[in-house]
Amino acid sequence: MLAQLSVSQFRNIVSAELTPASGINLILGENGSGKTSLLEALFLLAMGRSFRSRALKHLVKKQQQRLTVFARSMDQTPIGLQYDLQSGLLIRLNNAPLKRLSDLAAHLPLQFIPANCHQFFELGPKYRRRMVDWGVFHVEHSFNFHWQSYKKALQQRNAAIRKYKPSNEIALWDTHLVKHGMKITEFRQGYLQQLVKEFLPLFRLLCPELDTASFMLRYQQGWNKETDFAVYLRENIERDRALGYTRSGAHAADWSLKIDDADPYEMLSRGQQKLFFLALSMAQIKLLAAQKEITNSVLLIDDLSSELDWHHQNTVIETLRTLPVQAFISSTNDDLSQLLKADNEKKFHVKHGVISEKVKHAINTNPDIVE
Ligand SMILES: Nc1ncnc2c1ncn2[C@@H]1O[C@H](COP(=O)(O)OP(=O)(O)OP(=O)(O)O)[C@@H](O)[C@H]1O
Ligand SMILES: [Mg+2]
């Protein structure tokens, strides 16, 4: 959760200073004003990467040399990030240079919900793995160790395949892949089962019209479920050599949450698919709070109003109020500010990259006072 934020030379934002609310923050403005850019700056600060550009140079304001994002979390820890076109990325957490990006992610558990999140179950498995791994990373402390070790072993095995090494040399890496891959699989499966439990009541709240639907979690571990991983790797080594890489394993896992035995995109309207994804992200927040007492989550929702009618936008905001989360919600719809009410909620307007805090319209209960 963030108490203070400054962004400079980031896309079309020259310089912005914000004191966000601890609850809901609405980011309102016209197309191209800089709303997504502000969310992107927050995402960069938490993850050390962007959700829309591979190369960070695109994030630096045109004609400028470097961007900076600085924040203070609620416990006053300073987090500073600078990307310079010449010297690259520099991140400081609590005034010390950051050693590992995972330290940053652990400090600021942040999820991003893109405007097109309704396509989540149509996208490649990479996105679904990323979502579950985000959650597992926060609740299982050894997950990062197993994942990094797995990735290293996989790179080595693939390098051996590409160098046409004999099969027995390639298979040297299998023990590591199996050891860490099994652990990763166990973590993911356990986590997903818990996630579905949290998801169901949230989805029913957001989408009561589907409250009789049945849900089933499908997890594909990344290799034939009937076969032991070690045996599977051994038996498929010739196939991997022909392909030039290790095809199966925890890195190829996928999952789905079937609704009445269909994939969400086969069954749900676009708005319902968006609510489905929102409920999954909200379930992650609840799970983190329940399992690890993590109550400083940040949720970025880009363009809440797309695909959702007024009533459902209201339900999303109402539901967010019940969760331990600081939300930044962008929209082109100014009317959304009518939904704000609590003290810990704020609205910001963005125009040509300039961000200003707006006073909420208090509901005037005294007819003698004209605002
Ligand atoms: N490196 C850059 N330097 C300057 N401006 C940039 C840079 N990259 C993108 N922009 C511009 O920044 C502006 C803000 O883009 P952004 O995606 O944040 O808008 P938005 O408010 O989210 O709009 P929409 O409602 O259409 O999603 C756009 O006009 C874009 O062309
Ligand atoms: Mg946008």
Set down the secondary structure blueprint:
Elements: E1 2-10, E2 13-18, E3 24-29, H1 35-47, E4 66-73, E5 78-84, E6 88-93, E7 96-97, H2 101-107, E8 110-113, H3 125-139, H4 143-162, H5 167-170, H6 174-206, E9 215-220, H7 229-235, H8 237-243, E10 254-259, H9 264-267, H10 270-292, E11 297-301, H11 310-321, E12 325-331, E13 345-351, E14 354-358
Parallel strand pairs: 3-12, 3-13, 8-11, 11-12
Antiparallel strand pairs: 1-2, 1-4, 4-5, 5-6, 6-7, 9-10, 13-14
Helix pairs in contact: 3-6, 4-6, 6-7, 6-10
The structure holds adenosine-5'-triphosphate and magnesium ion.
Short description:
The chain has 371 residues and is an alpha/beta fold. Helix content is 39%, strand content 23%.
How far is the first residue's CA from the last residue's CA? 32 Å
According to CATH, what is the class of the largest domain?
Alpha Beta
Count helical runs: 11
> What fold name stands as the CATH topology of the largest domain?
Rossmann fold
- Portion of residues in beta strands equals 15-25%
Keywords: ATP-binding, Cytoplasm, DNA damage, DNA repair, DNA replication, DNA-binding, Nucleotide-binding, SOS response
GO cellular component, one term: cytoplasm
Subcellular location: Cytoplasm
GO biological process, one term: DNA synthesis involved in DNA repair
What does this structure look like?
This protein is of the alpha/beta class. It has 2 domains: 1-109 and 295-371, Rossmann fold; 119-293, Up-down Bundle (Glutathione S-transferase Yfyf (Class Pi), Chain A, domain 2). It contains 11 helices and 14 strands. It has helices at 35-47, 101-107, 125-139, 143-162, 167-170, 174-206, 229-235, 237-243, 264-267, 270-292, 310-321; strands at 2-10, 13-18, 24-29, 66-73, 78-84, 88-93, 96-97, 110-113, 215-220, 254-259, 297-301, 325-331, 345-351, 354-358. The strands form 3 sheets. It has a 6-stranded antiparallel β-sheet with strand order 2-1-4-5-6-7, with helices on one face. It has a 6-stranded mixed β-sheet with strand order 8-11-12-3-13-14, sandwiched between helices. It has a two-stranded antiparallel sheet with strand order 9-10. Helix 11 (310-321) links the parallel strand 11 and strand 12 (325-331). Helix 6 (174-206) crosses helix 7 (229-235). The longest helix has 33 residues, at 174-206. It is globular, with a radius of gyration of 23 Å. The protein starts with a strand and ends in a 13-residue tail after the last strand. Residues 364-371 have low confidence and may be disordered. Bound molecules: adenosine-5'-triphosphate (ATP) and magnesium ion. Adenosine-5'-triphosphate (ATP) is lined by residues 11-12, 29, 31-37, 58, 60-62, 332. Residues 35-36, 302-303 line the site of magnesium ion. This is DNA replication and repair protein RecF. Belongs to the RecF family. Residues 1-339 form the RecF/RecN/SMC N-terminal domain. The RecF protein is involved in DNA metabolism; it is required for DNA replication and normal SOS inducibility. RecF binds preferentially to single-stranded, linear DNA. It also seems to bind ATP. It holds the Pfam family SMC_N.
